[in-house]
From TrEMBL:
Domain notes: Composed of three domains: the N-terminal N domain, which is responsible for interactions with the ribosome, the central G domain, which binds GTP, and the C-terminal M domain, which binds the RNA and the signal sequence of the RNC.
Binding sites annotated in the UniProt record for GTP: 111-118, 194-198, 252-255
Top EC class of this enzyme: hydrolase
EC number: 3.6.5.4
Alphabetical UniProt keywords: Cytoplasm, GTP-binding, Hydrolase, Nucleotide-binding, Ribonucleoprotein, RNA-binding, Signal recognition particle
Keyword Transmembrane attributed: no
Domain SRP54-type proteins GTP-binding: 273-286
Name of the encoding gene: ffh
Pfam families xref list: SRP54, SRP54_N, SRP_SPB
Alphabetized PANTHER family for the sequence: SIGNAL RECOGNITION PARTICLE 54K PROTEIN SRP54, SIGNAL RECOGNITION PARTICLE SUBUNIT SRP54
Lineage: Bacteria, Pseudomonadati, Pseudomonadota, Betaproteobacteria, Burkholderiales
Organism of origin: Parasutterella secunda
Name the record gives this protein: Signal recognition particle protein
Amino acid sequence: MLNTLSQRLSRVIKTMRGQARLTEENTKEMLREVRIALLEADVALPVVRELIARIKAKAMNEEVIGNLNPGQALVGIVQKELTNIIGGSLSEKEKELNLATQPPAIILLAGLQGAGKTTSAGKLARYLVADRKKKVLTVSTDVYRPAAADQLKVITEQAGADNFPMDASLKPLAIARDALAHAKRYFYDVLIVDTAGRLSIDEAMMNEVAELHDDLKPSETMFVADAMLGQTAVQAAQAFNERLSLTGVILTKLDGDSRGGAALSVAYTTGKPIKFVGVSEKIDGLEPFNPEGMASRILGMGDIVALVKEVQKAVDVEQTQKLAQKMKSGSKFDLNDFKAQLAQMKNMGSFSGLMEKLPSQFAEAASKINDEDAQKAIARTEGIINSMTPFERTHPDIIKASRKRRIAAGAGVPVQEVNKLLKQFEQTQAMMRTMQKGGLGKMMRALGG
Ligand code: GDP
């Protein structure tokens, strides 16, 4: 099994603890791990080289901000550069489907056979009809495979759009022109033109698509790439881009187990935005492309962005600040604070939901967590604290045998549970003391408090 990048990185990060800044020396091992992870995700070698060079240049210029350790800072840089390459810096307008010309807007789909052109034509039609309220016509120009034209007809109907029947005795350009005339006459907003593909790059196929492109002057010429194909997809994308001046890419079959390295390579080699991704065989299996999510997927880091947001939402900032204030003033962490922390954990709700967003090695642990059990355990602990007197809560040291028995009876739990709680509390208190010395304020800022 492949080691995910996050597993590799967390090992390296440990060795980087306590170092003040990123240096040539301490980033070397980490960058090697990043490089291997990218190659394993099937990112093309020249792209990997360029990316590593960019990360290195950024890292050397970056002051490690106070509370991050250099390892974490580097992970941040890697994530950001990767996101930028695959389109994170594009404007909304550049990422969107361009339908701005006089109707009908023409969308031409090109790509190798089996890449998912016909399926994507149907999905696009559905998206335009259902989400954008457009009147959509589709046409196949694949005169070599009448079955492909039939397939397009079927999914066009599913999409709630219309299909222009293909006359296989005509040339592809003549068919497309007929369809365009029909679209104009009946006031269609969009005409989607599906083209013939071959199993590999082929001059005749290229000429045919280029002819359609030059004549129709589509507002979108999209290359449909199969994410599972890796390097082959990249070479094809490059060849098509040279001939057709593509306006965007649809990356299909991302529901497969590909790590999405092709996304990075295709975006980098063509310089064109990935506009949509295919995530299932079904007609609604098309999603707008999300560069941040894809960067995490390539790095095997799980959907960390979503996780961070969720945790920030759940952590009660005011509570956290109050605690920080109290700790700063040198007060002791007591059982009331402990109880407040438990309440926050309860607010976070679904533990397994949170854990699922973490990298795969945690996801496995998440599947074992039972939310109900976790919530019950918190509730029991709260019950025990509630059975203590206010004085006991601020002076836990005085809780000895007879008090423990009284508290246990009050909460309806065995004495062992009271012992367990006090032990947990002591550990947390010790941790708080260490942080008090080492600058708790910094940690709280890192948490967004
Ligand atoms: P074309 O030759 O380029 O027109 O390719 P097709 O549209 O016929 O697709 C080839 C195969 O890939 C079909 O079996 C599709 O169902 C499948 N396919 C296309 N897009 C996706 C996708 O996003 N996910 C999955 N799982 N399968 C897809």
